[in-house]
Amino acid sequence: MQMSSGGVVGGGGGGGGGSKVMSPKQVLTVVLVVFCALSFVKLLLLTGSSSPAAAARRGRASAWGVGGGNGTDGGLAPKEAALLRSVVAARAPCRLLVFGLSPQLAALAAVNAGEGAATAFVTDSAEDADSARRSLRGGSAASAAAAAKIHQVRYRDAAGEAWPLLRRARDSPACRRPTGAVGRSGCHLALTATLPREVLDARWDVLVVDGPSGAAAGEPGRMGAIYTAAALARASAAGGREAVDVAVHDVHRTVERWYAWEYLCEDNLAAAKGRLWHFRVAGGGPPDAFCPTGPAQIL
Q: Cα(49)–Cα(51) distance, rounded to whole angstroms?
């Protein structure tokens, strides 16, 4: 194709009229544009399907189908599950209360077998509650597992509210160590409006906190579950009774770590595996505080 000036654009002749080769700067610009476009597409895909909440839901849904987790989806890692089973087995038959519900947690009902054993689960997921009921009706040690109770509740406070709630609790006399039944507690952290009286008024030997999710700031947090577990443990161990075992999972997260130190106390830490802390909470101690060393210092 000839141009009016006589130069050739599309032909194969020489004379400097052939196709231009891009300079290194132009090549770099094109590469950057393509890279940015691909990154933007990837970001859209991630935010649409792989948020912490969505990942937790997918892991929970698939867990019931395969019978457990490996710790990568938020479930218990093998060494954590082993520690938790050993704690329950050492006290079985006992009264076991679990905040949270998954195949790994549901399996604790079979570990807690024997005359006088009682196991209760607290969950805010209707899906998990239904799956657990189907699972607990079969399998080995069916009599112990089938007798487990599942309480479906609705948690009030989001994980993102943990720090304001803790500051308020530190200033509230009602949130100091309870001296009577937990069900009559006036502390805003106590799950008195969430849990049934049969849970609040009972004496427990082992308590486990692995729920609610708390995986994102807007999701229900474990502040109330940890506080209530600590209060129930103190009440259950009062009067010279045997110390109560309390396990808290996901202590690599700020909320779980804060509240565990605040209400279960560093002095009571008996064992730790991965993201699981095991406390032994005994009676005695100061009447107006959970921990003798004072509140945890949070920077």
A: 6
In sequence order, which residues have a C-beta less than 8 Å from that of residue 243 and are 6 or more positions away? 237, 280, 281, 282, 283
User: Each residue's pLDDT tens digit in the chain (299 positions)?
Assistant: 444 444 444 444 444 455 567 787 777 777 666 665 665 444 344 334 344 454 455 445 446 654 444 454 579 999 999 999 999 999 999 999 999 999 999 999 999 999 999 999 999 999 999 999 988 876 554 566 778 999 999 999 999 999 999 999 999 999 988 767 788 899 999 999 999 999 999 999 999 999 999 999 999 999 999 999 999 999 999 888 999 999 999 999 999 999 999 999 999 999 999 999 999 999 888 888 899 876 666 55
**Model-level pTM?**
0.77
